[in-house]
Known about the structure:
Layout: E1 7-12, H1 15-23, E2 32-35, E3 39-42, H2 44-47, H3 57-63, E4 68-70, H4 74-89, E5 95-99, E6 102-106, H5 111-114, H6 117-132, E7 136-141, H7 144-154, E8 159-161, H8 167-172, H9 184-192, H10 198-202, H11 206-213, H12 215-225, E9 257-259
Parallel strand pairs: 2-4, 7-8, 8-9
Antiparallel strand pairs: 1-6, 1-7, 2-3, 5-6
Amino acid sequence: METTATILHADLDAFYASVEQLLDxxxxxxxxxxxxxxxxxxxxxxxxxxxxxxxxxxxxRELCPHLIFVDGHFNEYxxxxxxxxxxxxxxxxxxxxxxxDEAFADVAxxxxxxxxxxxxxxxxxxxxxxxxxLPISIGVARxxxxxxxxxxxxxPDGLVVVDPQTELNFLHDLPVELMWGVGPVxxxxxxxxxxxxxxxxxxxxGWSLERVVGRAAGEKFTALAWNRDPRxxxxxxxxQSAGAQSAxxxxxxxxxxxxTNSASSGRQSRHPAAGEIPAGPDSDGPRAFRRPTLxxxxxxxxxxxxxxxxxx
Length: 312
């Protein structure tokens, strides 16, 4: 088992909406939605009113009467998404792109060149912001599963580094819906069992969980709730879909770092280390997430096999 946090998950914040605000500075700080009849993506300012991707344009206007709809510039999305991935490639060849706006990277082999994983993540964020003008959130952890969750906790426009020594304290306090595969249906089923956090899920007996979500999902959820995820970075896959579920914040470009560490209560501390800038009032908890389902073999006798269901 890896004992160091060297896996990065980088996710461009509210990518479509961020690009539109980049192309038209007059839209910055305003609630915007990409699309028309259906919302393809919403800015952080629009999300504050409850607007979200997949919502009808009519419902979005009801929630936010001053919402500004804009047409998409898909060539720009591809260009800028590619450019952000190129930044990761400048640090490590082990980059696995899973969509137009997010990727995993393993930096274990390049720390002697560029510093610690946290320093590399900070450098990536700085370059994406200064060279491309876009916000990007990054999670750093020991596994892909936890790195992806950490990047969602980091949103908007932040960095979360999960200490392997306290990773379960960090993970178990989080809402269960942040886990891969826990969408609205499974969330409702788990809530009926009294499960609202990942820690509560970790304590549910296997037979009880299997009865509610099925054997395959139950095994998967239990494994991930204990951060058992030995999947490695694979570099042969190409990003396919463009996500816009993440929120775009208003914070400036300076580094927003939250490090996890143990506290006497057993819960993670969100206090920044010396010299770090706290994430601020808008980034003290999970806020948005994508929900790909797992399919790549986990390759561990303790973990289930999710072939054909994992884009990662």
